[in-house]
Amino acid sequence: MDARLDYQAAGPITTKVFKHVMSAGQALKESPLPAETKELVALRVSQINGCAFCIDMHTKDAIAAGESAVRLNLVAAWREATVFTEAERVALELAEAGTRVADAAGGVGDELWKRAAEHYDEEQLAALVVLVSFMNMVNRFNIITQQPAGSYEPGQFG
User: Fold this and answer.
1) Alpha-carbon distance 82 to 134, whole Å?
2) Domain 7-144 architecture
3) Please, are residues 35 and 131 in contact by the beta-carbon 8 Å criterion?
4) Which helix (H) or strand (E) holds 32?
5) pLDDT at site 155
6) pLDDT (tens digit, 0 to 9) for every residue of the chain, 158 residues total?
7) Hey, where are the domains in the chain?
8) How far apart are CA 5 and CA 66, in angstroms?
9) Which of 77, 84, 98 is nearest to 34 (CA)?
């Protein structure tokens, strides 16, 4: 399968936008949100959206960072799994509500936000919101252009 669009060769506007997108991704990596939470959230958003490229990337990056296969395999069914902390569970719930805006009855509700604030400080909450939004954006770029999955190497994008 070939991608519909090569971002690097698509012209100056795409090059300029993706330079900023990659910078935003790097800033998220440096955020105070726990690294495990970042990968779990990125993976869950990508699963919901069906972005094979991002599922491949975040699974491999998580494994390279020491994440267990059990936890990664259970992300899609996190509600029934006992391997996630309460903070991770709230982050996954917020990721789902923020991704399924159209069918999540209003998105992230006050009760969910309150529970998230019990586990994360304001800077971490901001990073979580930006991460969920960022992942939804890049998932859509990759899905629309049919970026192929399977060849990503851990740390490939810095």
Assistant:
1) 28
2) Up-down Bundle (1.20)
3) no
4) none
5) 81
6) 788 877 777 788 888 998 899 899 999 999 999 999 999 999 999 999 999 999 999 999 999 999 999 999 999 999 999 999 999 999 999 999 999 998 866 789 999 999 999 999 999 999 999 999 999 999 999 999 999 998 889 988 76
7) 7-144
8) 33
9) 84
What is the per-residue DSSP string for 16-83? Answer: HHHHHHHHHHHHHHTSSS-HHHHHHHHHHHHHHHT-HHHHHHHHHHHHHTT--HHHHHHGGGGGG-SS
What are the tokens at 93?
């719930």
Other C-beta atoms closer than 10 Å to the C-beta of 87 total 17
Q: Cα 156–74–134 angle (5° rounding)? A: 45
Contacts of 7 (CB under 8 A, 6+ apart): 14, 15, 18, 141, 145
